[in-house]
Amino acid sequence: MLPVEIKKDIFWVGSVDWNLRDFHGYSLARRGTTYNAYLVKDEKIALFDLVPANHVDELLRCLKATIDPEQIDYLIVNHVEPDHSGALPRLMEIVKPEKVFCSPIAKQALISHYHREDWPYEVVSTGQSISLGKRTVTFLETKMLHWPDSMFSFIPEDKLLISSDAFGQNLASSERFDDQVDKTLLFSLAANYFANILLPFSPLVQKLLDKVGEVGWDIDMIAPDHGLIWRSQIPEILAKYAEWSAQKPQRKAVVFYDTMWKSTERMARAVTDGLIAEGLSVQLMSLKAAHHSDVMPFIMDAQAIVAGSPTHNNGMLPLLADMLTYMKGLKPQGKIGAAFGSYGWSGEAPKQISEFLQSAKVEIVAEPLRIKNVPTDADLAACQEFGSRIGREVNARVPA
Fold this sequence. Notes:
By secondary structure, this protein is α/β, with parallel strands linked by helices. It has twelve helices and 22 strands. Strands 1-2-7-8-9-10-11 form a seven-stranded mixed β-sheet. Strands 17, 18, 19, 20, 21 and 22 form a six-stranded parallel β-sheet that branches. Helix 5 (183-198) crosses helix 9 and helix 10 (318-330) packs parallel to helix 11 (349-359). The longest helix has 21 residues, at 377-397. The radius of gyration is 24 Å and the shape is elongated. The N and C termini lie far apart (48 Å).
C-alpha cells in the first residue's frame, strides 16, 4: 500500500494483511486486518507503532515513499505485542533512532521479547509530553488494554489520538477512514473486536473513558493500530465503547450447542422456540458451523446463555469444552444460563456444562435438562418449556 496523508505531514504507513484469518491464534478475522503505523514529519520525525516482522518490507516501501527511513529520529512503541513491534529489530538496524519511547512496562517487555538492552529506550509515563518541534506528544498509559505495556499517544496540535489496540477493527481494506465504508459493517467489526479482545477489561475501559474526559483532550481523529481511522464517527464509537464495556444485558439469549446424531440439535431448536415464545431475540449457533469468536459478540449483550451437548465418553463434546473455556476467559458479566443435552447410557454432560457455567459466574436458573437418545414430542415440549422458563427469567430481570 502507498502512504496516506491523514493530517498535514502525518501519514499512515502501515500494512494491509488481506489474507489473515487466524488472529493471534484464538480469534477469526474473516475480513483480514491491517497493521497501522503512523509517521509524523516535524522538526523531529517520529514513527508510531510498527508491523509484524513478516511485513517489515512493506512498511519500509511505504516509508520510503515519504521519507528516507534513516531520517527518522524517534520510534514510539505504544504496544509491544509482536504484530506491532515485530519489525522493531530490523527498523533499529536501518533507522538507528535517537530514542525509542515506551511505557515503563513496555521497556521490560521489549527487552524480554528482543533481548536488546542496548537500544536507546526513553521511558515515559502518564502525563509526560515530548516535543517534535511544532507538535507535542502526550502519553497516557492504558495498562491491560489489552497488555500491561499499552499506552495512548495524543498530539493536541492535530487533535489526533493514536490509540494502540483500542477502537480497532479487523478489516483489510483499500480505504483508510471510517466514513469510506459501510457504517453497519464497520461497527459490527468493532463490536467483534471488542467482544474477543477487550471484553475482560471492561471495567478498565470505563475508567479509561472517564480519564480521557478528565484530561480534556480535544479529539477529532482516533487512529488505532488495526483497521480504519475514525474521523467522522468519534462520538458514536466512544458511545459504543461505553455501552459495550458497561455490559448491560438486553432481552436476548444465545443458544450454542454441539451434536452427534441430531438429538441435542433438536433439543436446541425446541429450547429456542421457547425463548422466542417469551419475546426474546435469540441466536441459535451450532459450534460445528460457528467459531467460538463468532459466538462472543452475541454473548456480549445477551442476558441468557444456554449451552447443550450430548454425553460422550462421560463428558461434553470437545467443541463445547472449547467454547466454554474461551468464554470464561473473556469474563462476560451479569449472565444467567442453563444446560441441556441428550444421552445414551450415562448423561454427565449437561451437569458438567452447568457447573462450568457456574464457574464462569453465570447464574444457573434451571436444572440441567437431559433427554435419553431421540427426543419424543413430549420431550421436545419439555425442551420448549425449558426455554420459556429461561425466557421468563430474562423478562423479569431486563426491563422492556
